[in-house]
Amino acid sequence: MKNRQLIYTAYYLKMDIFFYITATVTLVSTLMVITRHNPVHALLYLVVSFLSLSMIFFLLGAPFAALLEIIIYAGAIMVLFIFVIMLLNLGKKTAEQEKKWLKPKVWLGPTLLSLILFAELFFLISSSGNTSSNSHIVDSKAVAVSLFRSYLIGVELAAMLLMAGVIGAAHIGQHKKTTLHRFLKEEEPS
Question: Which pTM value belongs to this model?
C-alpha cells in the first residue's frame, strides 16, 4: 500500500513538473507572438503556443481536446492566418523579406520550444503504461452533441467572425487603382 502511494506521489510530482515546463513554453511563445514585428515570425511562435496549449490539455487528462487544439487551431486557423498574410503582403519587397525569413536564426526559437514539447510528449506517452491515471475520457460524439446543441450559437458566431476576418483581409489586400486624368497619364510607346 505504501509503495503504491509512493508511486502515485512520484507520478503526480512528475506531472506537475511537466505542467510547469509546458506552461513556461506557452507563456514564452505567446509573449514572442505579441512582441514580434514580423508577422511570419509571430505566426511561427503562435503555432508553438497552440501546440503547448494542447500539451497542457493532454496533461490535464483531456486528450481529445488536445487533439482538437492541434487540428483546429494549429492546423486550420494557422492556414487561415497565413492566407491573410499572403493577401496583405504582395510585391517585390515581400520576396526580399521571404529570403530573409528563411535564415536559421528565425527558426531557432520556435524549433527549440517545439523540441521541448515533443520530448515531453514522447516521455509522457512512453511512460503512460507504467501508471494509470484517473482521467475521464470524452469521446467525439459527446463533444459534437455539446457543440451543436448547447453551444450552437457560439459555434455559429465564431464561424461568422472568422468569415468576417477573411472578407476584411481580402478587402484590405486588394490593390486600389488610381485613376489619373487623361492628360496626366504617361504616353505609351508605340
Answer: 0.56
